[in-house]
Amino acid sequence: MSHILAIANQKGGVGKTTTAVNLAASLAIAERRTLLVDADPQGNATSGVGIAKHEVEISLYDVLVEGRSVREVILPAPGLPHLAVLPATQDLVGAELQLVEREGREAALRDALAPILGEYDYIVVDCPPSLGLLTLNVLATANSVVIPIQCEYYGLEGISQLLNTVRLVQQNFNPGLAISGVLLTMFDSRLNLCRQVAEDATEYFEGKVFGTPIPRNVRLAEAPSFGKPILLYDAQSVGAKSYLAVGKELIRRLEPAPVVQTTPAPAPHPEVAT
Fold this sequence. Notes:
Blueprint: E1 3-7, H1 16-29, E2 34-38, H2 44-48, H3 60-64, H4 70-73, E3 75-76, E4 83-86, H5 95-99, H6 108-113, E5 122-126, H7 133-141, E6 144-150, H8 159-172, E7 178-185, H9 192-205, H10 218-222, H11 230-233, H12 238-254
Parallel strand pairs: 1-5, 1-6, 2-4, 2-5, 6-7
Antiparallel strand pairs: 3-4
Helix pairs in contact: 1-12
């Protein structure tokens, strides 16, 4: 079964979509079959892997509202053979209004993804920067939540609201949902404020913070405008190396270590007296 990761933070500008795109790419580079689901009506995760939003004819909106099959909508990600994309367009804005009166509305995404769960090792979902019905759908579907936190003054503001939403989803819709990681973004070790936010987050989340923060990096900021994950835009940049490290750490957290079977050494033959 797939590991379904919700990349969630209701604050905008914290590196949520950047994390969704580049974490999905890192998992694909590690030869994990990965599906990136763009659940943000802005569609930036779609364009961030090189798919032109204006050329997308059917999208996640059609899956959730019109009942189209997920397999009809999924597209290959250019340059990454192990990565596929379930794209979004601005039509997704209307999905919340059209789902609100539907019975079982919080399970629309879970039901849509059910037929393909065995086809991917990881499904990475870019949530909208809000705690509305679309985000509720993602959290009701996911196994794990990854929370990107910007290393700035207001970085931890609003996290308690997100955590309350996670608890409500656990209690009412998805008891198996867990926070699998907290990722520090826009980190600058030269700034006292960044170091303080990192210390506060590490203390607050008790072992959930990834060991590698994502630094401020010009190449990382440039990559979306070229429609490429940082690993395709500049694989030698510090941003690319950081996301690769986070991807490896996530794999270690979520995948059981292989059991190494050792063959016992043969018993020594007794010496025969001559």
